[in-house]
Design brief:
The complex is a heterodimer of chains A (about 160) and B (about 600). By secondary structure, chain A is mainly alpha-helical. Chain A contains four helices and no strands. Helices cover about 25% and strands about 0% of the residues of chain A. Chain A is globular, with a radius of gyration of 18 Å. Chain B is globular, with a radius of gyration of 22 Å. Classes of the chains: A mainly alpha (about 160), B mainly beta (about 600).
Chain lengths: ~160, ~600
């Protein structure tokens, strides 16, 4: 996309429209050339649906001071987002959340890859998933090409009260 | 530097603006008695007395937020209308107060801390703007939204703190950087959000991070080039705190050697909080500055038995050296997040035929204190909102008498503690009118259930160990604008808000008006004597900034306030009936 460069704009193809399924279906990052994923995008959480692992994840969630930012119930604190919903700025699949914990994120999420083992990070992922939020796995290929296949539920319009 | 001629020009400016001869004579006498002859200081000392301008966050060194302007008064304020507006383009909390100097208004946004100079001769137009390259990492370690509480003017410079621990000085004429000083490292969980105070050629700044295991400090930087003149810590040995032979603490509870070490287990003071994120006031005659300190770290009090000095305290210091003249701890061994950082408003009070140099402080712990600012003695004290953590202040030791059952502890939840972690009042500053003798206090009436758990210090993460959901307080209201008599420590009247705590600053004027805003966006003018609502208007977002007033180039009196909800107040404003976030400056006139 060259819309800042001036010149002959008529021959520049228009930018793709945002996904019909909402912003969360097109997560930010990992930024090209910045984040190095520790795992393959096809990797599966070895502790999926393991409630004991989710329990160990909860202990880590408290011990690593995650509660201070994300809230004691993980429903958002003053410093960091809600983890119990389907809106995930950096992606809400198991692999995305692993990557966010491992690498950290630019606006203040610390990188835990040097402190916690892969197993411990997967336990944290299991805990967060047990809260009922997150999204399904990312599909092969771009969601922009297949918006109908997005696993993220479309955000619902809210009218209050 | 401002030559003496500048003073003369400023007075003629005031005269041109149609101010009374009386006001001009006040300005003249203050200019003649400017302290210690420093030209920059004389410039600011003069400007803070010019009611047409608003040169420092609290309107003056005493932080009264009082303006003698009286063109707007109780008889005509109902005709107030929006004159012009300006969008900041930022959606975080807008906490500061606009400054007006030489027909230019200065505002600073929340992170990334952009500065704007707005030309009042062409109202609302940008004279210059400045966008610093603020480190985005700071966003993730700022406990309570990425706010900026205020900016300062002196000697042709605009000085303020960046969230990423830099203090910068800009040329007020064109916005170019004069100097920049890095004071701390965001990776250690330290940020800077407070409003600097400029005293006698020194920029006084302090740190935030009491929720992140930071260790509190206050520093003085040279206004000329930004180099550090001194730095005093708020925990640790007396030599670090700058407690010396000249320090005389009034109360027994605050007397002893190295209490900043001995009132902590092991080396816990090194991550003990007591940060300096609130307001600083200044008495040029006593040559003392006054500032408070935050909660101790971690929040879980069971991990730090002892008084935890000097958290939740007030210091009176010599601005030249940082030396402590006196200190007093409002809340020893704080278990409730009762920071002591709220403003200390300096007032001169008639007391049995003599004038007493006092200060008034409304603490997070729910007590309103009137203290002798020369000695630190309590003159009067009483709760101003619902509180149940103590039964009173022991006037012989100075320590509060704590209700054991309302402590917060590990492995258990204590219900219905009042006030909540927001305090009976947060940092949003009150105002004092010398005309009515009353202090106008933006108060919070909320309680909490609190339970603690073990926490370890991990750099750059919250050092808290606490869960603290808010619950309703007695009285059936959440916020109140309280008119308070500082002599008797009693409420005179109040305007209660059922649904929202108050998080906006207050302005009071010579026209017997009190201005303040609410979290759901109502901006109000009250009669300063009765509390009657004389005027109100719904703004685009909730109000957590401080209102101010000035005389425009056209001679009219204007009122300005930033709307843009956020900060801790933003949590309370997440209701279906409150407007959303978004920064907008509103300027009103008749």
């Amino acid at each position: 996309m060259r819309y800042n460069e001036g010149g002959d704009l008529e021959h520049v193809p228009p930018p793709p429209l945002p996904s019909l399924t909402g912003a969360a279906a097109v997560p930010e990052g990992p930024f090209p050339g910045i984040a190095v994923s520790a795992i393959e995008s096809t990797e599966v959480n070895p502790y999926a649906d393991d409630s004991a692992a989710a329990g160990r994840g909860r202990q880590l969630f408290v011990a690593m001071n995650c509660t201070g930012c994300h809230g004691f119930q993980a429903k958002a604190g003053l410093m960091a987002p809600n983890l119990v919903d389907n809106y995930w700025r950096y992606g809400g699949s198991d692999v995305d959340v692993f990557s966010s914990i491992y690498n950290g994120r630019a606006r203040g999420m610390p990188a835990w890859g040097a402190v916690l083992s892969h197993d411990q990070i997967w336990e944290l992922v299991s805990y967060v998933r047990s809260l009922g939020g997150m999204t399904g796995p990312r599909l092969p290929g771009s969601l922009l090409e297949h918006p109908e296949k997005a696993q993220t539920p479309a955000p619902q319009n809210k009218r209050q009260p | 530097m401002a030559p003496p001629m500048t003073t003369v020009i400023r007075i003629s400016d005031s005269a041109r603006r149609g101010l009374t001869a009386l006001l001009a004579s006040i300005a003249l006498s203050s200019a003649c008695s400017a302290p210690r002859g420093d030209a920059a200081e004389a410039d600011l000392a003069h400007r803070e007395k010019d009611p047409g301008e608003w040169a420092t966050q609290g309107s003056d060194y005493s932080l009264t937020r009082y303006s003698p302007l009286a063109k707007l008064d109780t008889s005509n304020v109902s005709g107030l209308r929006v004159a012009w507006t300006f969008s900041t383009g930022q959606v975080h909390g807008h906490e500061g107060t606009p400054l007006v100097v030489n027909d230019v208004m200065y505002i600073v946004t929340p992170f990334p801390d952009q500065a704007y100079a707005l030309d009042l001769k062409k109202p609302g137009t940008v004279k210059w703007s400045y966008t610093p390259a603020t480190n985005p990492w700071a966003e993730g370690v700022a406990c309570c939204d990425v706010v900026n509480r205020g900016w300062a003017y002196a000697d042709g410079k605009i000085v303020y703190n960046l969230l990423d621990d830099r203090t910068i000085a800009l040329d007020a004429k064109d916005g170019h950087e004069v100097w920049e000083t890095k004071l701390a490292d965001v990776n250690r969980g330290i940020t800077m959000t407070m409003a600097p105070l400029i005293v006698d050629g020194k920029v006084l700044v302090g740190n935030s991070g009491g929720e992140m295991g930071a260790r509190g400090w206050i520093a003085a930087l040279a206004l000329s080039d930004g180099h550090q003149l001194w730095r005093a810590y708020t925990t640790g040995p007396d030599s670090d705190v700058k407690i010396t032979a000249k320090t005389h603490n009034f109360y027994r509870n605050d007397q002893g050697k190295d209490l900043g070490v001995t009132s902590w287990p092991n080396d816990a003071w090194k991550h003990g909080g007591a940060t300096v994120w609130g307001w600083i006031s200044y008495d040029p005659e006593l040559n003392l500055i006054y500032h408070g300190t935050s909660n101790p770290g971690p929040w879980n009090g069971d991990q730090r038995p002892g008084d935890n000095k000097w958290s939740s305290s007030i210091f009176a210091r010599d601005p030249n050296t940082g030396e402590v003249r006196w200190a007093y701890q409002f809340t020893p061994h704080d278990m409730w997040d009762y920071d002591g950082v709220n403003e200390n408003v300096l007032i001169d009070m008639a007391d049995g035929g003599r004038t007493r140099k006092a200060l008034v402080h409304f603490d997070r712990n729910g007590y309103g204190y009137t203290m002798d600012r020369a000695t630190g003695e309590i003159i009067a004290v009483a709760p101003f909102v619902a509180q149940n953590w103590s039964t009173g202040i022991d006037r012989s030791t100075g320590a509060p008498v704590v209700v054991k059952e309302k402590g917060a502890h590990q492995g258990t939840v204590t219900n219905d503690i009042c006030p909540s972690t927001s305090g009976g009042k947060d940092e949003e500053p009150s105002a004092y009118s010398p005309k009515t003798g009353l202090v106008y206090v933006p108060a919070i009436n909320v309680c909490m259930n609190k339970g603690e758990h073990q926490v370890q210090y991990i750099a750059g993460t919250p050092y808290m160990g606490s869960n603290f959901p808010a619950v309703p307080a007695p009285g059936g209201f959440k916020g109140a604008l309280i008119a308070w008599d500082p002599k008797t420590a009693k409420e005179v009247w109040s305007v209660k808000d059922t649904n929202y705590p108050l998080y906006s600053g207050v302005l009071t004027t010579g026209g017997d008006l009190v201005f303040y805003g609410t979290l759901d966006g109502w901006f109000r003018a009250l009669d300063a004597r009765s509390g009657r609502v004389l005027w109100q208007q719904q703004l685009g977002s909730g109000i957590i900034g401080g209102p101010m007033t000035y005389i425009g180039p056209d001679g009219k009196q204007y009122i300005a306030v930033l709307s843009g909800v956020g900060g801790v107040g933003g949590v309370y404003a997440k209701t279906p009936s409150a407007p959303p976030t978004g920064g907008m400056l509103y300027v009103f006139s008749l």
